[in-house]
Amino acid sequence: MTPRALLFDVDGTLVDSVYQHVAAWCEVLDQTGIVFPAWRIHRRIGLGGERFVEALLADTGRTATPPEVKRLLRRHDRAFARRAHQVKALPGARELLQFLSNAGAPWALVTSGRPQDARPALQALGIRRRGATVVTGDQVADAKPAPDLLVAGAERLGVPIEATIVVGDSVWDFIAARQAGAFGVGLLSGGYGRDELLRAGARRVYQDAADLLRRLGELGIGQTESARSLKAS
Fold first, then answer.
1. Structural domain boundaries enclosing 213
2. Phi, psi at residue 145, to the nearest 5°?
3. Does residue 100 share a domain with residue 67?
4. How many CB atoms sit inside 10 A of residue 218's CB?
5. Which of 22, 72, 153, 194 is deepest in the core (most CB within 10 A)?
6. CATH, residue 115
7. pLDDT bucket at 64, cuts 50 / 70 / 90
8. pLDDT digit string (tens) for 86-118?
9. Model-level pTM?
10. Residues in CB range of 151: below 8 A, 6 or more apart
11. Are 146 and 179 in contact (CB under 8 A)?
12. In this structure, what CATH number is given to the domain that contains residue 44?
């Protein structure tokens, strides 16, 4: 029997990039004259690009116009690109994806970011886009917390969304998973707390990708082999 399909968020789930995004947004907002604390930016990471900007500006009492949203996103892209060399795979992430591939478990990457944001993450994970199923925010009508990305990922894998496991690090991942009817698995590697993820809809919570790899048996996927894979890495 083919193992259950997995849909992975990227930033904070598989790669250590959340704080690079926060730093990039801090730089952009400072240049724009918008005073906004970094911790509140962090709480929005995981939203789709346009939703993210609209939410940030709404928090400052401003209404975002489409040209302003696009201008801020372009500035963020440049600021993040200068930090892209800092993006690293989180512990166990590469081994987890390799194990799933070896086990015949279908998986896809589903990120609210745009292709240029996803590129450093794919490089950190050693993934060539042509060799993996990757859905980015620009490819769907609405990004997280809407379920569109997850539905698209399941469709690309050829499985029902209800038969997938969504692995993410933010509350937005599990709001989307709950709407889609998927099983949510949270990782603490993006900075959200265990209780927050559980309240948002995660059914299990692990420390990071390495912890998930060791405990895949709890999800019905080759526990012994996954533990051996991590130990040998």
1. 5-16+88-232
2. -85, 5
3. no
4. 12
5. 153
6. 3.40.50.1000
7. confident
8. 999 999 999 999 999 999 999 999 998 888 878
9. 0.90
10. 161, 180
11. yes
12. 1.10.150.240
- pLDDT score recorded for residue 96: 97
Which of 85, 115, 138 is at the close of a domain?
85
Q: Which of 85, 108, 138 is the last residue in one of the domains?
A: 85
Interior/surface letters 151-185, b for 16+ CB within 10 angstroms, e for the rest: bbbbebbebebeebbbbbbbbbbbbbbbbbebbbb
Tokens of residue 196, six digits? 């927050």
- Asked if residue 171 and residue 63 are part of one domain, the reply reads no
Report the domain count for the chain: 2
